What we know:
Immunoglobulin-like; elongated; membrane; transmembrane helix; transmembrane
Amino acid sequence: MQPAPGTWLDQRPLSRDWPEPAPPLRVPRWVRVGVPVLVLALLLGLVAALGGFERRTDRLTVMAPGAELDCHQLVYTFDSATVRRTQGVDGVWEHQLTVSGTVRNPTDEPQAPRYGEFGSLVVRGVPGPLTATIEAVALGSSFEELSVNTRDFVAPGAPALPLEVRFTLPDDYEPSDVVLLGAFEMEYTDNYVLGLGGGQRSWNKTDDAYAVYLPLTVLPEEPY
């Protein structure tokens, strides 16, 4: 058989003097596993050192008592708070905390403060982690006058109304001379995923909020 054009056969005998190939480099398991972990730890340490894991504070604005808190759905002011330790019919003690201020409506439709976890207002004990959401609201009056002056909505364009908002904190709350009130900005959006709410919009909390440290007056406790 003739070799293909452009090729040739080497008729010399094979040499037995060639060195054996070097064995493949074997990397210990601890190196293969440990080095990536070490690199990741160093990267995380660098990010932490540069403040990458610090809680954002640019979305929290600290305001003075009495300042306007524009939450878009409603505009609030708060200047003071009281707290009273009370006993319920079941014998359980708790703290009723009431903040006082005003509210007005900057929109074109009647608005009512939202309650519970969907509401824009929250309080936190100082010091301590205990928090509470809106439990009751007295619009245009105080809670003492609520039975004779009941109002559910804030009319658009009307002057600011007197306002009291009540929160309940557990018995292990220890009042100090201030309480922290948080007021979240609201947005009028369809809060269903991918717009599956059929275009039905409502007022929902955003991540932007105001913080106000209100002077707190402790009232005498009230047994049942």
